[in-house]
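re: ur question from the group chat, yeah i did fold both. here u go
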Amino acid sequence: MDNFSVLITGGGTGGHIFPGISLYEEFKLRKIQVSLLVGKKDINFSPLSKINKNDLHVYGAPVFTINIFKMPFFMINFLKAVFKAAMLFKRLKIDSVIGMGGYVSAPALAAAGILKIPVFLCEQNSVPGKVTLFFAGKAKKIFTSFNITKVYFKDALKSKVTHAGNPIRKVILTKAGKEEAKKYFHLGHCKNIILVIGGSQGALQINELFLEIKKMYSNELKDTGVIWITGEYSYKKFKDELGKLGTDGSVYLSPFIDDIGRAYKASTLAISRSGAGGVLEFASVGLPSVLIPYPYAADNHQEKNADAFELAGASVKIRKDEAEPEKLGEIIIDLLSNVNQLSRMAEKAKSLAKINAARDIVEAVAREMKEK
C-alpha cells in the first residue's frame, strides 16, 4: 500500500466533480487514503452520494468577483475557506492535494501552498482556466485532457504538463450491451436513440430547441427514441410540454441519470453543450455528437472544446447563430440516415479518449510522492 494521503478538491459543475470522483475511485482501488473536498452548493449533487461519508468534506469557497463593492466580502470568505481547508489538511494529515479546477478548488490550493503540501492540477478544458494558470507555478504536475492545452502555459512550466486525458468514472464504462441498454430505458423498439443533454445542470436552450424539433420533425423521427436529460430546473416544464404532444415518438425524460453509462451505450447520437467533462465522456464510449457550445463559458472554452472535436471528425459543431430548430433538425436527420458517417465519427471520438487517464494520473502522483 502506498504510504501517503491525498485530498481531491473541485466543484461548481459536473465537469470538475466527475473527474474528481474518478480519481477518488482509482485511489480507493490502490488502497491509498483519499478525501474529497467540494463546495457547499455541491453537496446535493447526486453522484457524491456514493462517496464514503467519512471521505467527503464541504467548505464555503466563494465565487470570484471583480465588483469592487463585493471584493471585501469575497476576500473575507476566501480567507475563511483557506483557514478551514488548512485545518482539514492538518486533521486528516494530508500529504498531497489535487485541484480539479474551478473556483471551489482555489482556497484549498492556497492552503496547500501555505502549508508546503505538494499540489497537482487537472485541467479538463482545452483552454486552461484561471485557477489552473494561477497555481501552475507551484504545481508538481499538471495533467491535461487535451493535447493542445500545453501551448497555453509559459515555456518554463511546459515540462510539468502531461497530456493524461480526462479521468472517466467507472459507471461510464458499463459492460451492458447496446440492446440491453436500450431496454433499460424502455426504448428497445427504437431503431435509433438520440441523447439530449446540456450538462449536469441542464441547458434551457437545448431543451427548447429539441422540443421544437420534436414538433417539426415528428414524422421523420417517429422511429427514433430519445433519452432526454433536462436538468432539475427544466424537468417539470418539459414533462408538461411533452404531455401536450401525446405519444409522438418514444421519450425517456429525466432531470438526471445516475447510470449515464447505460444512456451512452444505448444512444446513437448525442446533442449537448461542449463542456469538457461531457465531450470526453462521449469520446470514451465512441458516441458521435452534435455540440452547441455555451457562448458565455469562461475564456470561451466550450467553443474551443467543440472545435477540437469537430476538427477530429468526432462531432458537428453548431454555432450560436445557427442554433435554430430547422438547422439542428436537418443535421440530426441527415446523420441518423448516414450509418457510415456515424461509424466514422464514433471511431474519431474514440481516438480522442484516454480510457486509462485516472490510472495514469494516480500512478504519476504516487511516483512523485515516493520520490518526495
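okk and heres the other one u asked abt
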Amino acid sequence: MRIFSGIQPTGELHIGNYLGAIKQWNSLQHQNNCIFCIVDLHAITVPYDTEKLSNLILEKAVIYLAAGIDPEKAIIFVQSHVKAHTELCWLLNTITPLGDLYRMTQYKEKSQKGKKNENAGLLNYPILMAADILLYDADIVPVGEDQKQHVELARSIARKFNSKFGETFTLPKEQLPTEGARIMSITNPKKKMSKSDPEASYISLFDSPEAIKKKIKSAVTDTYKTIKYDKEKRPGISNLLTIYSLFSEIEVKEVEKEMKGKSYKKFKDELAELMIIKLAPFRKRREEFLSREVYVKEILKQGQDAANSLAESKISEVKRKMGLI
C-alpha cells in the first residue's frame, strides 16, 4: 500500500508524536511504499522565527532518521521542495466548500488564540494537507487522533473531484494506533500533549535523563492512594499508566498489578527510569546524524527527486482533467 504522513519542523518532537505517528511509520515502512514529509509550508501559517526555520527543517530530518525511518525503505523529503503540493492545493481550493473549512476543529482552536493568528493559510491548511495526501494516491495516512478530521476532509475532497472530473484520486483512510493515539499533557492531563505548550507539559524524544526525571516527578496525578487506571475520574495517573504501558509493551492491567501497593513517588521513579532507558537510543542516533549534515541533505535531495517524479505525474493528470492542458 502507499503510505503518506508528515510532521511540521517547528517544535520539539515529543513522545505523543512518536507513539501516535512515528512508531507506526517504523512498522509500516517494511512492507509498504512509504512517503514521509517535513511539512514546512504548514508551519508558516502561524507566527514563526524565519532565521531558525531552515535549521529546524534539517533537524527534523535528523529526527526522522534518529527515530528509525530508513531512507532505503521510505521517501523522506521537504514539502516546499516539491512545487506540486502548492499547485494542487490551489486547484483543490476551487472545489472545497468554505463551510467545511470553518468546521475544522484545529482552525477554531488556533484562530481563537487571537485575531493576529487568523489568516487565509490557517483556514486553508486542511486543503494543503489534502493535497499532500492525494498527490501521492495514499491509501493509508497514519495519524494521531487530532488529525483524523483532516484525513476525512481529504477523502471528501477526493470523492468530490472524482465525481466532477472523473476517477483521479485514491480515497485515503486514516490509521490510528490501537494504543497511544492521544497522549495527554503531563501537567494538564485533560489536554492533549502538544509541542506548542510549555516544555514542562511534554516529554521530548530527546530529553536528557535529568529533564525526564524532573518532568515525571512534577507530573499531575490525583489525591487517591492507589495506582489505578480510570480515564474519566483519574486522568493524570491514567495518562502516566498509558505511557508506561506503551514503552514497556505491557498491558495497563499488568502494570497496575506490578505497581500494586507502591506509592506515586515509587511509580514515578520507575516510569522515569523506563523512559530514560527507552529514549537513550534516540538521543544517541540524533547526535550521530547531527554530525553528518551532508549525508542528511543528500537523503533529502534523493527524497525530493523521488517525490517529484510521483507528484509531477499526478499534477499533470489533474490539470488535464480540469481542462488546463
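fwiw on the second one: Residues 293-321 form the longest helix (29 residues). The chain has 13 helices and five strands. idk if thats what u expected
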